[in-house]
Amino acid sequence: MSTKSTKPNSTNEVRVGLIGVGGICAGVHYPGLERIPGVEIAGLCDPNETLLQQRQREWEIDNIYTDSEAFLAEVQPDAVVIATPNVMHRPLILQALAAGCHVLCEKPLGMTYAETVELVEAARASGRVHMTAFTYRFVPGMNYIRHLLRSGELGEIRHARFQRLQDWGPAAIGWRQYKAMAGSGELGDMGIHRIDFAQDLMGPIVAVCAATKQWEERTQTRDGQTVPRQDVEDWVAWIAEFKSGATGVFEMGKLTKGYGPNGDHDLAELNGTKASAVYRLHTPHEILFGERQQPYHTRPVPAEFLTRPGSPRDPQEGDPIRTFRYDQAWEFISAIREGRDAVPSFYDGMRAQAVADAILQSAAERRWVDVPGV
Ligand SMILES: NC(=O)c1ccc[n+]([C@@H]2O[C@H](COP(=O)([O-])OP(=O)(O)OC[C@H]3O[C@@H](n4cnc5c(N)ncnc54)[C@H](O)[C@@H]3O)[C@@H](O)[C@H]2O)c1
Questions:
Q1: Which is the closest atom of ligand 1 to the Cα of 86?
Q2: Ligand 1 centroid, distance to 87 Cα (angstroms)
Q3: Nearest of 36, 191, 44 to residue 108 by alpha carbon
Q4: Which residues, given as ranges, of the chain have pLDDT below 50?
Q5: Which sequence spans correspond to the domains of the chain?
Q6: Do 14-135 and 136-320+344-370 have matching folds?
Q7: 145 C-alpha to center of ligand 1: Å?
Q8: CA dihedral in degrees (49, 53, 59, 60; nearest 10)?
């Protein structure tokens, strides 16, 4: 184990290593970190040498590595962001914690609930800051709905619905379509975010009744190569019972024509005893709000909820559907600097995984399943 101090970082300088420099690292983690004063991108690690060199040129980073052990030993970053295929999350998190690093890891945190329990224990024992990249918690509309809920404006939530419907088409989608690399399909890709923000808003889910479907084989890549058929679900739906007594209805699908190519549908609708509120990702700066006998009307998200407090991000900059994601890096770095827990932490990653495992079991056994550990 490292002998690095667990005290708040009083100098404000944080050296961050990026492990896995593919799509989400380039789209979210790098631009989020790069704009925070006092953050240095200390090095990059990825076994794909071509991509690694491309990122080195684009981002002008000196230290690049294909091997994570050598990267951690030689670069000695204060913190790492892990954005690799899901199967690599556990071994890389354990390596990084052992090297004394704070860790922000992509979702799903692990391949199974049991793995995530181990990761929470390891992170807590290390004394480092740990965070799961549940990005949608940072949508301005979500910040505002969380506030409305906690301040009592919606009353008690009785029921809610959560939908993520997209049209990815039938072509192969790489590591995401294999259980051995991803753990699950649409559930771990899109569903796990909705489990997380539903639990953030409404408290723990105690039981689920689920169904899954695999509609496409995905044996052809877009450039005509043949690959092994996928072995995970394209579509998943479940009813959830919350500890509060509320119910939730969830549906996620990657093959929903009408919702593409840029019309991805992402909706969370909470129906409370006083009012209902709707979050829609594609209008992130407004919500829908409706009280009794009142049709839904648009409410702009107040300025104080457009970014996280202190975030260096200008909420009017760029495409608001993308740029809210940079606040995730701000939360991670702020937690390190302030010597506090990050939100959402590995614990939240573990609680979402407990529900995800129960969903897969429920679908396989065609029955209600209790969520473990609630
Ligand atoms: N939070 C979100 O909104 C969100 C969005 C997209 C993806 N993700 C998650 O991010 C992760 C990565 O997804 P992606 O879309 O960027 O995938 P990707 O395939 O584009 O990138 C993954 C990268 O990891 C690299 N890699 C593989 N093994 C590695 C290892 N041992 N060490 C270092 N790098 C390694 C690959 O070479 C590749 O460059 C996944 O866990 C995914 O679920 C999250």
A1: 41
A2: 10
A3: 191
A4: 1-7, 10
A5: 14-135, 136-320+344-370
A6: no
A7: 30
A8: 130
Ligand 1 and 148: CB distance under 6 A? no
Ligand 1 centroid to residue 24 C-alpha, Å: 6
Q: Is 132 in the pocket of ligand 1 (CB under 6 A)?
A: no
Can you tell me which atom of ligand 1 is nearest the CA of 84?
A: 24
Q: In the CATH scheme, what architecture does the domain 136-320+344-370 have?
A: 2-Layer Sandwich (3.30)
Ligand 1 centroid – CA 25 distance (Å): 7
CB neighbour list of residue 373: distance below 8 Å, 6 or more residues apart: 113, 117, 351, 354
One-letter amino acid at 58 equals: E
pTM given for the model: 0.96
Atom 18, ligand 1: which residue's CA is nearest? 22
Closest C-alpha to ligand 1, atom 37 = 48
Query: Would strands 157-165 and 130-132 be described as parallel, antiparallel, or unpaired?
Result: unpaired
pLDDT at 110: 98
The answer to whether the beta carbons of residues 205 and 248 sit under 8 Å apart is yes
Residue 11 is predicted with a pLDDT of 62
C-alpha dist (Å) from residue 127 to 96, 130, 243, 366: 13, 9, 30, 41
Fold topology of 14-135? Rossmann fold (3.40.50)
Contact by Cβ (8 Å): 348, 130: no
